[in-house]
Amino acid sequence: MKKDFDFWWRLLRPHTLTASLVPVLVGSMYAFSCTRTLHFGLFLAMLIASCAIQVATNLFNEYYDYVRGLDTKDSVGIGGTIVHDGASPQFVLGLALGFYGLAALLGIYICANSSWYLLLIGAFCMLVGYLYTGGPFPISSSPFGEVFAGGFLGTGVICIAFYIQTGLLNWHVAAVSLPVAVLIGLILTGNNIRDRVGDAANGRHTLVILLGHKRSVQMLSMLFAFCYLWVAGLIFFGGHSVWLLASYFSIPTARQAVEKFRPEGQQPKQMMPAMILVSKTNTTFGLGLALGLLVETFLPML
Prior knowledge:
Blueprint (H helix, E strand, L loop, with lengths): L4 H8 L5 H18 L4 H28 L13 H5 L3 H24 L4 H15 L13 H22 L4 H24 L1 H6 L5 H5 L1 H24 L14 H11 L10 H27 L4
Helix pairs in contact: 2-3, 2-7, 2-8, 2-13, 3-5, 3-7, 5-6, 7-8, 8-11, 8-13, 11-12, 12-13
């Protein structure tokens, strides 16, 4: 087993970490827009801890997909380091636990500077991260994978990032977090559309399998539209400025993703570009939303 750059890239999947970075940025920028202060140490700790939990979740996914026989040499996707590169399953599992340890240490620092109640919330988030692919009933194999991913990585992380900076929580934070949560869930939807046939053969019951290809793509399109309409609602009814429309720069990418997913009968490898476009939509949308929240701090009247 050669542990070169490509090996670590495929194993740790750093290109997927925007799903962790974006919620921390959105929550922190919203906190800054409310208080005009930012505790940089807490911001950085939250950023690294969120990424560490996601990397650990990716590694648990790698390990349990191998153990359950879901990953083979013919598998298509961003993982599969055990079957393709000969990584030891024990090494992958140990690395996952190591990243959890790093997240726990950073969590203690965050709690010491905000609230110790967050320790319980953080522990629960880590448990969900493990149960997403681990345990006897993996969340990722159920119709609720997107809900858990969006709820915890999206709304949960944004609310925590906001709280540790302000000491407050309100419905405005949850409202801002909703489109980000939806888009994170759609990353999983894109992944499940690609893997639908193989997942069904392996006994999984994802939402995409229940809906079928055509209706899953229709759902993808409708939820993209919902996110942009929700931002408009935040501007017209939520007291935010038009700077939040920076998130609309992601519309062309979202449209391309839907169009590339639309043809039925594609092989998994043919749908990889569409999957990447869904992830890019989340990144561009989230960065635009975070930028809008930052700019409206100084130019709130527009």
